[in-house]
Amino acid sequence: MQASSPLETAAVDPAHQPDANRRTLLKAAGIGTGMAALSGLSSTGTAALAAAAQPAGATPEGADNFYTSDRVTVQKVTFKNQYQMEVVGNLFTPKDLDRRKKLPAIVVGHPMGAVKEQSANLYATKMAEQGFVALSLDLSFWGASAGQPRNAVSPDIYAEDFSAAVDFLRAQPMVDRDHVGAIGVCGSGSFVISAAKIDPRIKAIATVSMYDMGAANRHALNRTLTPAQRQAIIADAAQQRDVEFAGGERKYTSGSVHQLTAESTPVDREFYDFYRTPRGQFTPAGSSPALTTHPTLTSNVKFMNFYPFNDIETISPRPLLLITGDQAHSREFSEDAYRRAAEPKTLHIVPGAGHVDLYDRVTLIPWATLNAFFDKHLGRVEAS
User: Fold this and answer.
1) Could you report how far apart the first and last alpha carbons of the chain are, in Å?
2) Three-state secondary-structure class, residue 135
3) Where are the alpha helices (DSSP H) in the chain?
4) Per-residue CA distances from 375 to 93, 112, 178 (Å)
5) Taking the mean position of all CA atoms in its chain, how far away is CA 106?
6) pLDDT in tens, 367-379
7) pTM over 0.85
């Protein structure tokens, strides 16, 4: 991965507060991995940031984001997308892999603002345990994958990364090239749908706790963002482009809060408990805890032009499995996709599960449903 600039690795001053109008707008629209905004940067050290953070609640039952398996072999892999950007992933294969067989394969994408070590590796490991070849990847601009500036938003390139992962998998000798599927968690659910609409090689698509990143940024949850607020956010990002073009400091938005206060929303707390505690916290090389989960302010408005559910019906007759929790704040997006999609489609609602629960709570994630879906639609093919 290319090293971040000194500006990009600067820490966030926990005492910094953006102006009230900006804070209100960004809390309404900054949906990626939380509801709070990160804007100004200072030279305050990350130790001070960590000291200011409030203690999190107990790790929920069954949470196992960093799960590993002695039945699975893991290998770091790299490949290029069509823009010649290096994409980095982890390839998971069953340890008892029979080289006389070709196995179905699954690409797994991480939540928006996260990296493959958060949720994606877990899903890939579990699918490899069931006999699939699985590939988790860092989307471009995030984690170990290439792309500058770091943490940039580009939904078109994110979708391309899924297709590039399919390119890679179809070239592997142990993979049945005509039986490749994909899982997208949170924001990656919308990116994999975007990819599948124009890539028929993705034969079966599952999403988990999906966010429609376009609708989330245009309208916020439950369509609470007004047109005037949206225009103010767009104008703010455009003004910031002028600042950065002139050499000013880069600003970041959205993402998970670094502190909990009496005013923290339930969504703030849900994401904090995953991203800011040992449960799921991970800082990739070249970044800092202050910047994890936070997209750049100027690029985040790219989501305003992202409409992944338009023409979703054209994925048919390839099957869709949409998994969400009955308590998930993001449930509206899976339900919207289900309404628009053509058959075959399944909406699987997990009782008692919130949005983040399905990132890592292995006792709540419906593994049997995922396994049955991919077994049915990808199948197992003997090598000739």
Assistant:
1) 39
2) strand
3) 20-29, 46-52, 120-129, 155-170, 188-198, 213-219, 227-245, 266-275, 297-300, 331-340, 357-360, 367-378
4) 16, 27, 14
5) 16
6) 999 999 999 999 8
7) yes
